[in-house]
Write a structure and sequence with these properties.
Layout lengths: L2 H12 L1 H20 L2 H27 L6 H25 L3 H37 L4 H24 L15 E3 L2 E3 L1 H23 L1 H11 L1 H6 L4 H22 L12 H14 L4 H21 L7 H13 L16
Antiparallel strand pairs: 1-2
Length: about 350
């Protein structure tokens, strides 16, 4: 390793973001030693999915300057889609056992959730935000806030009218005995969810950094007019961005169906957590949303463990507020809003 690389690592460790991340790791290890490794397991499972949700929120804000308060409803849409794919197949498998179909059924549900979420994102952008961009750019942030609040209400009520208020979930994805890791039994479902989150974030990183589409998204995030002048379809990039963000939310909803059954307001907690994260790391900070997701998840797991279920959002919010008193731009101190200038 070069001397410059070592210096960069040392500088990062001394930064607010580095100190926060290292402190969170230390706290997680101490809590795991005290209460058991399940602390780490629960943090990784929910943290990975909260990171995906927050990446979607940060992406929309960084590229399109949209504060999406309907993001949780795409989580709900993902969980609902996964349920209506997985549940009928599980009923079929009870009468017609098939090992291969039993194995791929949860994966089909999760993939279906992503597709439905991405398509819903395309439809939302084309029907609502593309029309708003054409007609009125004044008071953009306020208009988007009001529109997404209204969209959230419409989607929740549509769920109630069409699918009812009953909880729609499953006990587990795979009927496989739990794996024993470090003396703790961990369900296969939770292990798979962690891998799904990791793979999704790696694919997204590669897409943004190396692909032509990623370069187009970065260009539009940095300068819409300049991107349009060099031939990039700005409207097309906006639509794809919305599809990616909603696809991430639906992926989280479908993957966590065994933990969060689908019902009209299931997306509220994921939405709140997404905003906790991007406020903590800085608005538009897509890269920071990943460690931020795990930090917020750790706060919540520790709160439930030591204080009880009713406090799982209270303590994290107090801690985040305390941090922001001293670091109003977030722990990574990013004042930019673009997708890449982190």
């Amino acid at each position: 390793m070069k001397e410059s690389d070592i210096k960069a690592v040392i500088d990062w460790c001394k930064s607010t973001g580095g100190i926060t991340i290292l402190s969170a790791i230390a706290i997680a290890l101490i809590a795991a030693a005290h209460k058991g490794p399940y602390i780490l397991v629960n943090t990784f499972v929910t943290g990975g999915m909260w990171a995906l949700m927050a990446v979607g929120v940060a992406l929309l804000f960084g590229v399109m300057n949209i504060s999406n308060f309907a993001h949780g409803e795409y989580f709900m849409l993902g969980s609902l889609s996964a349920y209506y794919i997985i549940h009928p197949l599980k009923l079929y498998l009870q009468k017609n056992p098939n090992a291969f179909l039993a194995f791929i059924t949860p994966l089909l549900g999760i993939v279906g959730a992503v597709v439905v979420g991405a398509v819903a994102g395309v439809v939302t952008d084309k029907l609502i935000f593309a029309q708003l961009r054409k007609r009125n750019r004044d008071n953009w942030l306020l208009n988007c806030f009001l529109i997404t609040i209204g969209l959230s209400v419409i989607m929740m009520n549509a769920h109630m009218l069409i699918f009812g208020n009953t909880f729609k979930g499953i006990v587990n994805f795979w009927d496989i005995p739990a794996a024993r890791i470090f003396g703790v039994y961990i369900s296969v479902d939770r292990i798979v969810v962690v891998f799904i989150a990791m793979i999704a974030m790696l694919v997204f990183w590669a897409l943004i950094k190396f692909s032509t589409l990623g370069k187009m998204i970065r260009a539009v995030a940095q300068d819409e007019k300049g991107a349009g002048m060099v031939g990039i379809s700005v409207n097309g990039v906006h639509t794809i961005t919305f599809a990616l963000a909603c696809g991430f939310a639906a992926l989280a909803g479908g993957s966590l169906l065994f933990m969060f059954p689908s019902y009209p307001t299931v997306g509220l907690a994921p939405l709140y957590n997404s905003w906790f994260i991007i406020i903590l790391v800085g608005f538009g900070n897509v890269a920071g949303a990943v460690p931020g997701g795990f930090i917020v998840a750790l706060f919540q797991v520790l709160t439930r463990t030591y204080f009880g279920e009713g406090w799982d959002n209270v303590i994290p919010m107090i801690l985040i507020s305390f941090i922001l008193i001293f670091k109003p731009y977030g722990i990574f101190e990013t004042k930019v809003r673009t997708v890449w200038e982190q």
